[in-house]
Amino acid sequence: MEIVLSDISVGNFKKLNMCIFDAKVTAIIGDNASGKSIIGEVLSTLRKPDSGKFIIDKNVLDLKRQDVDYNRLRFDIGYVIQNTDITFFERTVEEHMAYQLSVYNYKKSKKRIIDSLKMVGLDSSFINRKIKTLSDSERFKVALATTLSINPKVLVLDDPTCFLDESKKDNLYKLIKMMKLKYNKTIVILSNDTEFILRVADYIYVINNDKILIHGNKYDVLTSSKLKNTNISIPDIIKFQKLFEHKTKIKLEYRDNVNDLIKDIYYYVEKKSGGKK
Amino acid sequence: MNKVEIKNLILKRENTVIYDKLNLVINSGVYTTIIGPSSSGKTTLFNTIIKGNKSIKVNGNINYVVTNPDKQIVGRTVDKQLKFFMEMNNYSKRVISSRIKAIVSYFNLDSILDKDPYKLSLGEKQLVVLCSIMVLDLDILLLDNALCRMNRNLKEKVLSYFNKLKKKKVTIINFASDVSEIIGSDYTILVDKKLVFNKKTKEVISDNKIFEENHLKLPFLLDITNKLKYYGLIDKNIKDIESLVDEIWK
Predict the structure, then answer these.
(1) B1-61+138-205: CATH, from 3.20.20.220, 3.40.50.300, 3.10.20.30, 3.30.1330.30
(2) pLDDT tens digit sequence for B77-88
(3) Which CATH superfamily includes the segment(s) A1-76+153-220?
(4) How many Cβ pairs within 8 Å bridge chains A and B?
(5) Is there a contact between A262 and B249 if contact means CB atoms under 8 Å apart?
(6) What pTM does this model have?
(7) What is the DSSP pairing of strand A186-190 with strand A25-29?
(8) ipTM higher than 0.85?
(9) Calpha distance B191→B163 (Å, rounded)
C-alpha cells in the first residue's frame, strides 16, 4: 500500500509532504526532539493532523471534509511498539491476541491467531504461554503477530532495535525482510540506529527541527553532507567509503556489507599496482 | 588498592543458577570491558558487585552509572547535575569550578549547561550523568551499559576519556552490549551465564575465531582489517578508519 502525505500540518510541522512506497522499507530517522515521533503518530492514526490530505493507493482522503473516516486507516496500518503489553502480563498470548481482535471487531479465531504467530516464526505452543514468561524478543514477536492478526498492509515499527543486542538485531533484520518479500508488507521504521537502517531500509527520510532535512535512496542520504549539522551518526562502513573516495578520487558503488566492499577494494588496488599485488 | 576480587561466587535468578562458582580478579588501574549477549547475566553481576556479597572483596570506593540515565538525574539544570555529587561530598568551591570547567570543555557541554537534563536526548542524558560521576575522585568506576544510547562519535570520545582516568589509577569496569566498546580497554571479559574468557583486548582483537565461536558481531574496523589482511592488502593492525584508507592506498 502506498501512502502519500500531502501538505499535512500537525504540531510544529507545516505542509509536510512524504511518500511511503508500496512493499518497501522506509526509515524515518532523527533526534529525539526532531518531531519524528509525531510523524509516527500520524502514520499510525494515533494523532489526527490539523489539515492536509492522505493519498492512499491513489485514493484521496481530504482531512478537511467531515465525512472522511480517518479511523478506517487503523485497519490498514499496524503500529508495533516495543516493551508494550506490560499491563497484560498475567494474560496468555492467546487471550492477549484475542483481545486485540475484539478491539477491531474481528471474531475470535484460534486459526487466525496461530497463523499470525507462524508468520513471525513462533509455533502454536506459544498460545498458552503467559506474556510475562516470554523473553524480550519473543514478546516483540508476539506484539508483531498481534498486529499482523488484523492483516494490515502497512507496519509501523517504533524504535525496534532499542535495547536489542547484535544477534537479536540480526533476527529482526531477517523478520523485516520476510515481511517485505514474502508477505508484501509496506514497512515504516522510526529509528536512530543508522547501522541497522543501512542494512534494512530502501528509502530514508531525515527529520530535523520539525522539517524534512533530506530524503532519498539510503546511500544518497547517508553520504550526504547535510547530516554534518545533526546528531545522526554515520555508519562506519559509509565513513570508510567516503574517505576512500576522497583519497583515491575513485567513484565507488556504495555497499552495505564488508564482503562486497572488500571485493571492490581488491579490484581497485590490483588495478593501481598493475597486477603486482 | 582499587581492586575487585570475586571468589567462588554463586548467583541465582529466581530458581536458575546463572553463575556457578565465578572467579575473577580485576586489578588496580586496569580498564576492563565485560561483554555478553543480553540476558547473559551482565546486569545481575553488576548489581551484585554494587550491593556487595560475601564472595566479593572490594578495595576502594565504588561509583557507578546505570543504563537508564533518568535514575541518576538529580539536578534541575545540567550545570547543577554536574556539581551535585561533588557538592554532596563537600569538595571545595575551587576544585568544583576547575573540574567543571575541564569536563565542560572536553565534551563541549557549554551549549546545554542551562538546560533541563530531562529535556535532553537519551544519549546526552547518559553523557551528563556519566560526567557528573567522572568529576569525582574515583577509585573504582562501574558502568552498566551506560553508553548504549550515545552515538558513535560521542562514544569514542568517552572511551578515550577513560584513558585519562586510567592514568589516575582508576579501575574501570564497563559492562557493555556493544562489542565495539572493547577497543581501548586493557582486558575483555566475555560472560554468558559463566565466565567464557578473560583475555587481553589485544589478543581478542587479532583473533577472528573468538568472535565467530561466541556469535559476536565484529566491529566494522576489526572486520575489515582482518579481511584486508587475509587478501594481503594490508599487513598490520590499524587504529582508525582514516589511517586504514592511507594504509590501503599507499
Answers:
(1) 3.40.50.300
(2) 999 999 999 999
(3) P-loop containing nucleotide triphosphate hydrolases (3.40.50.300)
(4) 77
(5) no
(6) 0.77
(7) parallel
(8) no
(9) 24
